[in-house]
Design goal:
By secondary structure, the chain is of the alpha/beta class. It has a single domain, classed as 3-Layer(aba) Sandwich (Rossmann fold), CATH 3.40.50.150. It is built from eight helices and seven strands; from the N terminus they run H-H-E-H-E-H-E-H-E-H-E-H-E-H-E. The protein has a seven-stranded mixed sheet, with helices on both faces. Strand 2, helix 4 and strand 3 form a beta-alpha-beta unit. Helix 1 crosses helix 4. The radius of gyration is 17 Å and the shape is globular. The protein binds S-adenosylmethionine. The site of S-adenosylmethionine (SAM) has 22 residues, from helix 5 and helix 8.
Amino acid sequence: MVSPGLRYAPRVPEQSIPIERLHTFQRRGGRLGPQLQRALQVELPRYRMPDTRWDFTQVLPGYHEVVLEIGSGMGEATLAMAGAEPDTAIIAVEVLDRGIAALARGVAAAGFDNVRIHPDDAVSALANLVPENSLSGIRVWFPDPWPKARHHKRRLFQPSAVALMASRLRAGGTLHAATDVDDYAEQMVAVLGAEPTLRPVLLHGPRPTWRPVTKFEAAGAAAGRQSHDFVYVRGSD
Ligand SMILES: C[S@@+](CC[C@H](N)C(=O)[O-])C[C@H]1O[C@@H](n2cnc3c(N)ncnc32)[C@H](O)[C@@H]1O
């Protein structure tokens, strides 16, 4: 479904940050309790993706559908997807130790076979580890909004990163983004719309019923913010 008309004037950032200079996160510290520390030491290695180029036939044998979730936060949505889509492999990419540990613990408790974790920068993973034309989906739900104008250069949705994401999708693969920050929604639709290999199937949509409500989204909804979902499909070259 494509909703009629755009709500905001499209605006592509004038300069795209080169991929090698795009830093979309700040590492935050904070001590982890013993259960989360144990999860990092014991559970994470069971699910961790290799640091060398990913060959899904080796790492995820038997899964035809492989989806990358960028910025999985505390991992609730990852676990919900894994349960709802048992034939799809989900690779959760996150830099926050607390979230990585919580997800590893949750995957072990649920006994899911279809979740892997990459505890590092998604941009670097896309550039260096994910093969071209390999993913059936990329899901970026509520990326860090970086609300101050001087920080907009840290936003993930800019031309260089969108081109990189699109190149890692196979033909027919989907890029699904969501945000509850209105001017980031505007930026998303402008940048995604300018990527020639993608075509829109959902613009400024309500949450599709199959997408779990995320922790960040729930906090935004409680504060009166409205989410916008965008789904684009990669065409064949
Ligand atoms: C606003 S939070 C949203 C988390 C979750 N998707 C949700 O909706 O609850 C964005 C998350 O993306 C992570 N993140 C930002 N840039 C990243 C990157 N380049 N690689 C991996 N994770 C990243 C942050 O650490 C943070 O946990």
